[in-house]
Design a protein that fits this description.
The protein is of the alpha/beta class. The chain has eleven helices and 13 strands. It has two domains: 170 residues, Thiolase/Chalcone synthase (Peroxisomal Thiolase, Chain A, domain 1, 3-Layer(aba) Sandwich), CATH 3.40.47.10; 146 residues, Peroxisomal Thiolase, Chain A, domain 1, CATH 3.40.47.10. It is 33% helix and 22% strand. α3 crosses α4 and α8 packs parallel to α9. It binds oxa(dethia)-CoA. The site of oxa(dethia)-CoA has 20 residues, from α2, α6, α8 and β12. The site of oxa(dethia)-CoA (UT7) has 20 residues, from α2, α6, α8 and β12.
């Protein structure tokens, strides 16, 4: 279904906190090794937030850069809504987006969080595009930010070596579906039957409504890695195929494939199935790890700044995460300024 008002990317920005953590740093406190982490995940280093900072701080930094990029681009028109995709809000209540909007000086605009774990950026794109299509606003700041280290069990080597902190953001404006930067048909899906594969068991109403206190480890994120891996490959492959078809593209016409940076082996398996060669894939997982919802816009911003992603490229996006949730979308990359 399409409406007259498409959401068009007009600004982009990203931020990772300055504290770099190498595989050797992790191996100094966990039963793991640089060799295992590199070979099983493709990650060499990642960034962690500092004590006392939060997802909101990451979101403000990425949001500032995206707003500046949009201003440099063409006009200073005002943002009329803020959508924040995150699994690690600053507090369980209220949403973090209103505080981020206020800190960015955007006033009393509508602002809300989207919870779709590592698929959050694509679900956020759908929310932002909906606000624009419905005529609620002409311009949305969509931020995807996660401070996964705040929910990772530092003793759990199966997750502590993968997840990290970061943020990415885009400004979307009302435009036409034929313009560069217009978000193409979105494919989204979920499977709640498999919600136990990726979860934080405690801290929500189900646990809090019992009179039994939760075990401390139940407040941490946990993931059944092997099953998650299998579903990630299956759903990202299928969603990408469908999004390309709905955009009217053959897969060999995709110039840049941008998948959620879950694990380098997952990315390889998905690209192999789609027949997308290495030179048309973008990746930064070696340097930033798996940053949850942030991973796609963080990669888009970095690749734009480095020139690996350029105006006119046909870009296919896909993500997979807890829920289970997944999605894919297409966009012809616009001319963008980066900070
Ligand atoms: O972003 C949201 C979605 N998330 C994903 O898509 C992630 C999906 N899953 C994965 O990326 C991979 O499954 C992992 C990276 C989590 C794990 O890789 P794997 O090749 O599937 O390993 P495994 O879980 O099957 O474990 C293999 C072995 C086990 O030892 P045994 O049972 O064979 O003795 C693990 O205990 O590797 C062991 N292991 C480790 N060894 C050293 C697990 N984590 C580590 C570690 N260092 N950090």
């Amino acid at each position: 279904m399409s409406t007259g008002r498409a959401a068009v990317v007009t600004g982009i920005g990203s931020y990772v906190p300055p504290h770099v953590v190498t595989n050797d740093d992790l191996a100094a406190r966990l039963d793991t090794s640089d060799a295992w982490i590199r070979s099983r995940t493709g990650i060499a280093e990642r960034n962690f937030i500092s004590p006392g900072t939060s997802t909101g701080d990451l979101a403000v930094e990425a949001g500032l850069r995206a707003l500046k990029s949009a201003c440099d681009q063409q006009d200073g028109a005002e943002v009329g809504a803020v959508v924040l995709a995150t699994t690690t809000p600053d507090q369980p209540c209220p949403a973090t987006a209103p505080q981020v909007a206020a800190r960015l000086g955007l006033g009393q605009v509508p602002a809300f969080d989207v919870a779709a774990v590592c698929s959050g950026f694509l679900y956020g794109l759908a929310s932002a595009a909906g606000l624009i299509a419905a005529g609620i606003t002409d311009r949305v700041l969509l931020i995807a930010a996660d401070a996964f280290t705040t929910i990772i069990n530092p003793e759990d080597r199966t997750t502590a070596v993968i997840f990290a902190d970061g943020a990415g953001a885009v400004v979307l404006r009302a435009g036409s579906a034929a313009e560069p930067g217009a978000i193409g048909p979105l494919v989204l899906g979920s499977d709640g039957e498999l919600s136990h594969l990726i979860e934080v068991p405690a801290g929500g109403s189900r646990q809090r409504s019992t009179d039994r206190p939760a075990a401390p480890e139940d407040h941490y994120f946990r993931m059944l890695g092997r099953d998650t891996y299998r579903h990630a490959v299956e759903h990202m492959t299928a969603a990408s195929t469908e999004a390309a078809e709905r955009a009217g593209w053959r897969l060999d016409e995709v110039d840049r494939f941008v998948a959620h940076q879950a694990n380098a082996r997952i990315l390889e398996a998905v690209s192999d199935r789609l027949g997308i060669p290495a030179e048309r894939q973008l990746s930064n997982i070696a340097r930033v790890g798996n940053t949850g919802a942030a991973s796609i816009p963080l990669l888009l911003a970095e690749a734009t700044a480095e020139g690996r992603l350029a105006a006119g490229h046909r870009v296919l996006l896909t993500a997979f995460g807890g829920g289970l949730s997944w999605g894919a979308a297409s966009v012809i990359w616009p001319e963008l300024q980066t900070i």
